[in-house]
Amino acid sequence: MRILVVNVNTTESITQAIAQQAQAVAAPGTEIIGLTPHFGADSVEGNFESYLAAIAVMDRVMSYDQPFDAVIQAGYGEHGREGLQELLNVPVVDITDAGASTAMFLGHAYSVVTTLDRTVPLIEDRLKLSGLFDRCASVRASGLAVLELEQDPQRAVEAIVQQAELAVSQDKAEVICLGCGGMAGLDEQIRQRTGVPVVDGVTAAVTIAESLVRLGLSTSKVRTYATPRPKTIIGWPGRFGR
Amino acid sequence: MRILVVNVNTTESITQAIAQQAQAVAAPGTEIIGLTPHFGADSVEGNFESYLAAIAVMDRVMSYDQPFDAVIQAGYGEHGREGLQELLNVPVVDITDAGASTAMFLGHAYSVVTTLDRTVPLIEDRLKLSGLFDRCASVRASGLAVLELEQDPQRAVEAIVQQAELAVSQDKAEVICLGCGGMAGLDEQIRQRTGVPVVDGVTAAVTIAESLVRLGLSTSKVRTYATPRPKTIIGWPGRFGR
Amino acid sequence: MRILVVNVNTTESITQAIAQQAQAVAAPGTEIIGLTPHFGADSVEGNFESYLAAIAVMDRVMSYDQPFDAVIQAGYGEHGREGLQELLNVPVVDITDAGASTAMFLGHAYSVVTTLDRTVPLIEDRLKLSGLFDRCASVRASGLAVLELEQDPQRAVEAIVQQAELAVSQDKAEVICLGCGGMAGLDEQIRQRTGVPVVDGVTAAVTIAESLVRLGLSTSKVRTYATPRPKTIIGWPGRFGR
Amino acid sequence: MRILVVNVNTTESITQAIAQQAQAVAAPGTEIIGLTPHFGADSVEGNFESYLAAIAVMDRVMSYDQPFDAVIQAGYGEHGREGLQELLNVPVVDITDAGASTAMFLGHAYSVVTTLDRTVPLIEDRLKLSGLFDRCASVRASGLAVLELEQDPQRAVEAIVQQAELAVSQDKAEVICLGCGGMAGLDEQIRQRTGVPVVDGVTAAVTIAESLVRLGLSTSKVRTYATPRPKTIIGWPGRFGR
Amino acid sequence: MRILVVNVNTTESITQAIAQQAQAVAAPGTEIIGLTPHFGADSVEGNFESYLAAIAVMDRVMSYDQPFDAVIQAGYGEHGREGLQELLNVPVVDITDAGASTAMFLGHAYSVVTTLDRTVPLIEDRLKLSGLFDRCASVRASGLAVLELEQDPQRAVEAIVQQAELAVSQDKAEVICLGCGGMAGLDEQIRQRTGVPVVDGVTAAVTIAESLVRLGLSTSKVRTYATPRPKTIIGWPGRFGR
Amino acid sequence: MRILVVNVNTTESITQAIAQQAQAVAAPGTEIIGLTPHFGADSVEGNFESYLAAIAVMDRVMSYDQPFDAVIQAGYGEHGREGLQELLNVPVVDITDAGASTAMFLGHAYSVVTTLDRTVPLIEDRLKLSGLFDRCASVRASGLAVLELEQDPQRAVEAIVQQAELAVSQDKAEVICLGCGGMAGLDEQIRQRTGVPVVDGVTAAVTIAESLVRLGLSTSKVRTYATPRPKTIIGWPGRFGR
C-alpha cells in the first residue's frame, strides 16, 4: 500500500520530518511518500497561505504520476481537504480530523495545542465543519511559529507542555492533540511531561488511512464529494487545466 | 466610493450581469467595478473549483492597480472570503453572508435556493461558519447548473419558484435568498410569484459594503484576519510572490 | 426617505442624542425623526421596564401621523421588535440586531459591552432569538446605569474601554458592539483606545434601514409577522383599541 | 395557599374555564383565583397582542390587593413571564414551561399542539429561551383560533388529535403538550384517542406552583430577576407608575 | 400514595437520611419507602459503580413486593433511569432531572455543586440527555467524597458554599442544585450562606412524583420506554430472569 | 496483539459471527477473542437489557484470565463503554463510535440503519454523548429484531437497503453505518445495492483498536475514566466484589 503524505508548507525539511514519523508507525508493506507542494508559503499560518496551500496540495497530488492508495493532508486546521476528496477516488485523511477523531477514543474531552494564536480560529472552524468539535475542550496556542518549532524542538516542547497543562487543569481536557504537522515526533516527550495521552495527527492519520484501505472504504461520491463536472478551466498552467 | 465586485466564475458575461445589478442599486457616487478572475472554471460548482476560485479572486483583487474602498466576493457558498480579509484593509463582503444577514431582518426564518444539489453542503457550511445558519430553514437546489441559469432565465425562474414555494410551505421559510451570483436580477419575478421577500446577495452586498465604508468600519486586524506575516512564497507567478 | 428612530426610554435628551447620531450618518435625503414614548421608565434596565417600553414604542409609532419608510427601535436587548414587525408594513430594525449583524462582517467574533449586569441576560436572549449569537464572544457589563452614561460620558468611555479590552484579550472578541442606545457617539473614542472596530447599533441600524428601503424589501407577512387578526381590544386608551 | 391564575386573553369565560381546571387538581387547602386582565385582546394570537397581554397581566397582578403565594401565567408561548418574576417575590410559573417540563418526565421527546400556525414560532422561541426545547419534537398547529376552541370543543378535540397523531408517528413525539390555555380540560379525551400522555400546562402549573411554595423556593433575585430599580415611570395610569 | 425512594449507594444510613428528607416534604397521605440496593458499592462515584447501581436499583425495585405509585432514583448523575422507565408503569423521577427542572423555574441559569471532580462529566452527560443542560451555568465539585459528606456535614457545607459562591459570581448561576443524594438536608444552610435559592433534588423529586400521580400521568409507552419485549434472560439470579 | 470482542447479547452464534468478521479484517498477528456475557438477554433491544448487558460485558471482560491489548464492545448504541474505560488500562472501542467515526472520513453526513424503532433513541443518545452526532443525517430502523437478522439474512439485507436508500435520498446521507453488531458481514451486499460506502462498526472497531495499540495510546486516566476508587462492594458474586 502506498500513502501520499502531503505537507502544506513548502519547507522540504518539514516534509521529511513528517514522512519519517509517518513511516515509523506504518504497517509492514506500507510505503509512505512525502510530498512538498510546488508553490506556496514556507510555513502556513493563516487563511491566505492556507488557501494557497489547498490548491498547491491538490496540484501536487494530481501531478504525482504513480499509483497510490490514500492521501494524507498534513496540515492542522488548513483548507482544502474537500477538494482532494472530490478529485480522488482513494481515501483522503486530514490530520486535523485524524487527531481529533483518535483523541475522542481516549478521553471525555480533548484540547489542541497549536502554533500561533491567529491559527486557533482556523482550527476551530475546521473541527466544527468536520463534526468533531463537541468534545473539544479548547484550542490553545503555544505562541511559537511553525518554523520556530523546527529550529528549537526543546523550546517547542516546553511551550506545548505549558499550554497542555493549562488545558488539562483549566479546560478539563483529558487528551492533547498536537496542532501542527511540524510537531510530529514530539508526542512522547509531551505525554511523559503531562501524564495524559498525546495524539500526533500525522501518525494517527497513517493508521486511519491504512484502515480505510484495508476495509475497502473510500470517499462517497453521491453528493458533496462527487467528481467535479467537466468544466472549461482557463489560465492555470498545472494539472487542473483539462 | 469604488467597490470591486469579483465574480468567482471565469465567464465574463456573468461578471457583466452581476456588475450591472450591483450598479443599479448603488448609491449616487458609488462606482462598481466588475472583475473576472484570470484563471479558474467557467462555472464554480463544487469544492475543487471553489478553492481554485478562492485563490483566483485574491489574485485578481491584488492585481487590480487602482484604489478601491470595498470588495464584494460574488459567489454563493464559496471559499476564500477569509483570505481576502487578511490581505486587505478595506471591508470584504461575501454575498452569502450579505444575503443571509439581510434576510434575517425580514422574517423569522429564511431559505436559500441555489443551483445544483452538490453545492448545498458548501452553502450550509459557509453559513454555519459565518454564524448565520440558526434561522436558515433550508438550502434547496433548483437542479439547474450555473450556466443554465444564464442560458434560460425563464426556466431558471420556474425552477427557483418551485423550490421557493416548497421552502415556504414545508420548511417554514418566510424569506428566500437567491443562492447564486448568476441569479442576480431574478429577485423581483420570484417575489411576485411567491409573495415573500426575495433577497439577491449581490445587491444586498452592495448596500452593506457602502454602509461599512460610510460608517468608517473595516475588518478587525487583531487576530483571525491579521495581515499575513512576511513569508517566502515560492513558485507562484502572480502577485502573492513577494 | 423618512426613518423613525424610537427611543425605549422616556428621557427626551437621550432621544435627541440618538437622533443626532442617526442623522449624522444618514444618506442625503434621509430624514431622521426621533420619537420618545408617551409612557414608561426614564431608563430601561430590566424585563418589566422593557416590556412596558415594548408597548410604549408600538403606541408611539402607531400614533405618529405622518408617512414613514422604516422604523428603528433604539434599545439594546429590549423586547418588542416582533410586535412592530406585525403592526407595520415598512422595515423594522432593532439596534441589537443591527449592531451584531454589522459586527459579524468585521471579525470572527464580537462582544457587546452594555450598562448593568442585570441587562446581560436580556441581550443574550435577544441575540439568541435573532440567530446572531453564535459568534458572540461575550456580553459584558460596564457597571454604569443608562442615565450615568449621559451624565458622565468620559467615565462611560473609561468603563467601556476596560470591558472592551477584557473582551478582546480574554474572550477573543475582534469587534466591540456598544450595547446601549445611550452610548451613541462614543464609538470613535473607544475604537481609538482599543484598536478594534467599534459598532454603534444606532448608526448601523440607519444604514441597514436605508438599505432595505432602497432594495425594496420589507417584513415578510406570510407567517410570524403577519398583520394581527381583527380583535376586540378592550381597556386600552391608545391607538391599538380599534 | 392562594395561587393567582392569570388569563392572557380578556375573555372572561376562558378565565373561568382555566380556573375551574386549576381548582380541580389543586391540593386541599389551595385556593385558585382566576384573574382576567383589565385591558388587551379577547384572544391572544401573535406578538403584538402577546406584548400587550404581558403588560396587562403584570398590571392585573399588581392591582390584586390580597396576599397570594404564587402566580401562574396561563398563556402558551406568550411574552411577559420574566417581568412578573422581577416584580414579585413569590414564584411565577408560565404554563409553557410547566407543560414542557412535566412532559420531559414522561417521555424521550414531546410535541406541542397549539392553535394557529402563526403562534408556532412564538412557542418555539419561548421554549428555547426557557431551555426546554432540546427534546421538543415539534410544535404543530391545529388550525383553530383560540375562540373557536371554546365555541366547538369537539371540533377542537378532532383537530388536536389529528396533529397529535402526526406528532407521534412522524415527529417521534412520545408525549403531547396542549399548547393553549383555552385547551384546558381536553387532555383526557386526547389521551384516550392517541394513547400517549397528554399534559395540560394549566394543571401542570398548579402542581409546580404548589410544590415550589411547599419547598420554600422562589425566584432568585441576584441577577436577571432582581427587583426593578427605582425609576421615574411616566404616563402610565396603573399600578406601575410609582 | 406510596413512593419508593431508592438510594444508589448500599450505605443504609444514606438511605435513611434521604427517606427522612423525602418524608419531611411529602404531602399528607404520602408514604415514603426508602430502599437500599441489595448489591453494589457503598458509595457511587464513577461510571462502573454507577452502572452497577443502575442494575441494583432496578433489581431492588422489581423485588419490592408491595404496590407503589411512583419511584424516585436518588442518585445525582447516575445511570439507569431509562431502564426503570421501561420496566414500570408508574412514574419514575431521577433527582438529577428533578433538581435541574425545579431550578429552571427559579432563575435564568443554575449550577450544580457535587462531590468529586470525576463525577462532573457524568452529571453533565445526564443533564444533556435529559434536555436540561442549556441553562446549566456549571457543574462544580466540592472535592468531598460521598461518605465524607455524611461524616462531616459542617465541612460539607463549607465546601459546597465555597463552590456555590464561585458559581454565582463567576459562572453567573442564579440557583444552586445540590448534586448528590447524600447532601439532602443541607439546602437551608447553603441558601442562608449564599443568598440564592438552593434546590435539593430529593425533595424536589418528591413533589414532582406526587404531582405526576395526582395528574394521572405516567411514562409514555409508545417508543423509547416501551415495556421490554419478552426475552430469554440467562444467568441472572434476581427478578429479571423470567 | 490480542483483542477481546465482547458481544452484548448472550446468543453464542452472534458472538461467533462477530468474531469471524473481526478476524477477517484483523492484521496479521492480531488474535481476536470473541466473548459472550455470562448473563443477560439473548438479544439486547432496549434500556433495561442494555444496562444489564453493560454490567455483563464488564463482568465478562474482568473474568477473562489472559492478557489482552484492547477491548471492543460489539453492541450498537448500548450502555457501558465508560465503565470498561474506568476498569481497564487498555483501549476500549465501542462499535457505535467506531462506525460513526469511520463514516465521517468518507462523506459529509452519515446515517445509521438499525433494528427496531425503539433502539433509535438509544443510538442517538450514545452518538450525542460521544460527540459524533453533528454529521448524523438520521438513525433509521429496519423493523427487524436482532434475532431476525440472524435467522433471515436476505430479508435483513432487503430491509436495510430500503432504509439506506431513504437515508440517502431523503436525509442526504452519503455513508451508511450498520447499526447492530448482528449485521456484521452484510456490508458488502448493501454497498453494492445502494452505491454508497457502508461501514460495519465491528470491522471498523478492529482497525481502530489495532491502531491505538500500535500508536501506544490508551484511555486517559486523569478524570472521567480514572480507575475506580477502592470501595466496599457488597452482594455481587462476580469479579467486581473486591
From TrEMBL, chains A, B, C, D, E, F:
Pfam families: Asp_Glu_race. Gene3D superfamilies: 3.40.50.12500. It comes from the Bacteria. Its EC number is 5.1.99.5. Signal peptide: none annotated. InterPro entries: Asp/Glu/hydantoin_racemase (IPR015942), Hydantoin_racemase-like (IPR052186), Iso_Racemase_Enz_sf (IPR053714). GO terms for molecular function: amino-acid racemase activity; hydantoin racemase activity. It catalyses: a D-5-monosubstituted hydantoin = a L-5-monosubstituted hydantoin; D-5-benzylhydantoin = L-5-benzylhydantoin; D-5-isobutylhydantoin = L-5-isobutylhydantoin. Belongs to the HyuE racemase family. This is Hydantoin racemase.
